Give the backbone structure.
Amino acid sequence: MKFEFATANRIIFGPGALSDIGALARPLGDRAFILTGRDPSRAEALRALLQAAGVSSEIFAVPGEPTIDLAEEAAASARNAGANVIVGFGGGSALDAAKAVAALLANDGQLLDYLEIIGRNKPLERPSLPCIAIPTTAGTGSEVTRNAVLASPHHKLKVSLRSPSMLPRIALVDPLLTHSLPPSVTAFTGMDALTQLIEPFVCTRANPFTDGLCREGLMRAARSLLATYRNGGDAAAREDMSVASLFGGMSLANAGLGAVHGLAGPIGGMFDAAHGALCAALLPHVMRANISQTRDAGRFAEIAQIFTGRRDATADDGAEWVASVVSDLKIPPLSTYGIRREHFTEIAEKAAASNSMKANPVQLSIGELNGILEKAL
């Protein structure tokens, strides 16, 4: 067995942890560039805490999933501001944009020099500027991953800027920041977190380190995902989901993903849909496809036992549990986003060639991927 494990240089977790941001940021730089979501006013408390510690800041809004052009624009703004520390404050889109900006400021050239698939895929030569990642959702785990997912509308693709040096210097996870999330966002991001615990646990590159993280994360998500959806102020459940998201990010970064993300990536590049919503719509059907093809469904059975609390639960019971949760969360089908059967082959072919698909526990044919899409439609 051979594996490695890398994560953010430092992880700070806990309710109220945001109050420590000034003391954490000041040793890294005194001019912060903050990337946040579509409503910059949500970051005013963060800016005040930085200012009190002697760290000035400028803010840049990331209104949706970041595009290549937006990341280039943000990097130019950060460079003009003389930023020496980058802060991502928001969901996965803001955090990915922050990691991309931190990498671009430290390296010459343009994004296309370094992007996979559509770019030159050159390695980043120099470590990123110090980056602090502060998630305000519980889903992506982007605060502890080594890549930034960027959309290329021209290519109708999502691609990654990727390097071990892109791991944030500090991941600050404060579950209180997630309490104001509306139920729909709670559902989508929570299902993303659940997917990012299941896929690394069953993938071909699973290892003992990530196994432990996944088991703990799955247990917390199983007891708290629906609770946060039904009562956003449930502090214990919100904390559980923040842990689950964090552990999922650490696991996917060090083990891999699978067919859910393999399919969700191309769909997200072709259609306007939230990543977590796509993962949720696909997850039970991908699980069933993998279970039907694998010779040893032991890991899926273990997941089922965690989800149901029954020692005699089978792999199929786990997929049924997920399908039930998807229904309870009112997850929309793929057809909601304009996806039709005539799109299936293009989606499946792109998925088959994706990095995420490489670690799926079984090899799924184009026909089988089409079958998954049909069931999720």
Notes: The longest strand covers residues 31-36. The chain is about 50% helix and 10% strand. The two ends are 39 Å apart (CA to CA). Residues 218 and 288 are 18 Å apart (CA to CA).
